[in-house]
Amino acid sequence: MDAQTIALFVAGGGALGVIVWALAKIGRVLIKMAEALAAAAVVFLTLRLMIKAVAWALRQLLTHWRTSLTLVTLGAWWHWWGPVSLVITVAVVAAVLLGWRLTDLASFDAWAGRHLRAWWLRWTIYAPKLPGWLHACGLGVKHQAVPVVLAVTPLAQAFGRNRRAVAPTERPKVVGVRSGASWDLVRVRLIPGQKPEDFDEATLALACARGVTRCQVRELSPNVVSIDFQRRNLLTEPVPCLDLAAMTEVPGAGVDLRRVWSGRTEYGHDWFVPLTGGPHAGGGGDGGGQELGDVVPAGDHRPGHPRRPGAGVGH
């Protein structure tokens, strides 16, 4: 082996060593850059998730402020005073409410019962189930989607043949629930492409889905309707009229037309209506008056007696 060959070998080895050293340095730099990018990606993802979580919490707090405040209060109570005091307080409040209900059902339902019942029915029945009922009745909008399958390997291609893109379905949203002694008023926001008349055709199907005998739809605004479900009918039996023979002996001055007994409410209490200058004055054929044998209290509704749009229940 001559000197030139040896020199070439030495030069090639040196060049190869320099290249390996340079590649090692570049590899270390690339590893550091990858670690920095991964750390930045983790920080960015964490911040994005935190921002989305805060935005969701604020949206829930503004939309469902009563439920949110209740949960925050219960959580704070649990944290500061422990679960034992929380359980005792909840039991005492439940006992007080139960005693109030047994003592005076009318005032309990007016001040607390209807709110508790509306909250419970909204989160256990109407919010989770009503959108599905509406979709089953043809009141959802399904957007057509073209299936897209990306296959990069034969195995993925084999599994991709059975993949089908699910077309997104937009459904009406429950925005509020009010509950009376007999009726539940569920406010629903329409989606683009719907009109209130579409819901009128599905009242019977919605009543069957809810398991009630009657359902009606009222328009509250151009994009909000109220779906009313009659859970029970507390006015199935007419209230007998007072003895007319005894009433003839009452002098005219002793009759207060501003407070005339007209039957009983759904809670069994006497119901009085004014007959001076109101819609009940006179019993003409226009439906302005009501007979004592078929009384409809102010907080309920019966078939054949229309209710004005937006009227409340249980007040």
Question: In whole angstroms, how far apart are the ends?
Answer: 112 Å
Category from helices, strands and their pairing: alpha+beta
What ranges have pLDDT less than 50 throughout 5 or more consecutive residues? 281-315
Give the radius of gyration. Answer: 36 Å
Shape field: elongated
Number of strands: 8
What share of the residues lie within helices?
Answer: 40-55%
Largest sheet, spatial ordering of strands: 3-4-6-5
What portion of residues belong to β-strands?
5-15%
Biggest sheet descriptor: 4 strands, antiparallel
Arithmetic mean pLDDT: 78
Helix-strand sequence: HHHEHEEEHHEEHEE
Assembly classification:
single chain
Number of helices: 7
Structure commentary:
It is a single chain. Among the domains are: 61 residues; 56 residues, no CATH class. The chain is 50% helix and 13% strand. The chain contains seven helices and eight strands, in the order H-H-H-E-H-E-E-E-H-H-E-E-H-E-E. Strands 3-4-6-5 form a four-stranded antiparallel beta sheet.
Summary, kept brief:
By secondary structure, this protein is α+β, with helices and mostly antiparallel strands. The protein is built from 7 helices and 8 strands; from the N terminus they run αααβαβββααββαββ.
